[in-house]
Design brief:
Radius of gyration: 18 Å
Shape: globular
Distance between the termini: 35 Å
Strand content: 5-15%
CATH superfamily of one domain: P-loop containing nucleotide triphosphate hydrolases
Strand order of the largest sheet: 2-3-1-4-5
Structural class: alpha/beta
CATH architecture of one domain: 3-Layer(aba) Sandwich
CATH class of one domain: Alpha Beta
Number of helices: 8
């Protein structure tokens, strides 16, 4: 160790101190699924429901990440990986503060999701697969992205011209074509609340 470096980690507040203050456990809720599957809709509804139950949450979404910390990244394969890596590093800080952190990103490969889980810590990472079929996702396509992808106007569009690897063992799988929003949120709460409230 360098002569003039004085570690302070042993004197800093620990995660347990912050979780005790909040009365909740930090966790990462990682929503993955195709464009139009309902990831963001579920994440927003879940955040509101948990907030109303007195649980501190924070959503990380494409808009607030891409226009801020990741505004220098494009959509090349390397940039997509770096996008998720940075999101995971930011999420880890939130989770360490005891915050229930919610991410809704396509994150289309097992490898990219494993990287996120490894950074955050597998015990703090809950993978939620929004497994809505592509036909349903495409029928909901208000932005016309699937149509543009099928016409070749958008390259490397997940589910059309780029692959989506469905999670093999997600912690929870929800098909939003089979459940209402309220039913989906209730399924989520049933799976998540024991992890947040047990110390």
């Amino acid at each position: 160790m360098e002569k003039h470096i004085y570690p302070i980690f042993d004197r800093m507040l620990q995660r347990s101190d912050r979780e005790k203050l909040l009365g909740q456990r930090g966790i990462m809720l990682w929503f993955t699924g195709l464009s139009g599957s309902g990831k963001s809709t579920l994440a927003i509804a879940l955040e509101r429901e948990l907030h109303n139950s007195g649980i501190l949450c924070r959503i990380l979404d494409g808009d607030n990440i891409r226009t801020g910390i990741n505004n220098n990244l494009g959509f090349s394969e390397a940039d997509r990986v770096e996008n998720i890596r940075r999101i995971a590093e930011v999420a880890k800080l939130f989770v360490d503060c005891g915050v229930v952190t919610i991410a809704a990103f396509i994150s289309p490969t097992e490898q990219i999701r494993k990287m996120a889980a490894d950074i955050i810590g597998k015990n703090d990472f809950m993978e939620i697969y929004v497994s809505t079929p592509i036909e349903v996702c495409e029928s909901r396509d208000v932005k016309g992205l699937y149509k543009k992808a099928r016409q070749g106007e958008i390259k490397n569009f997940t589910g059309i011209s780029a692959p989506f690897e469905a999670p093999k063992n997600p912690d929870l799988s929800i098909d939003t074509s089979k459940y209402t929003l309220e039913e989906s949120v209730n399924l989520l709460k049933k799976a998540i609340l024991p992890k947040i409230t047990s110390f």
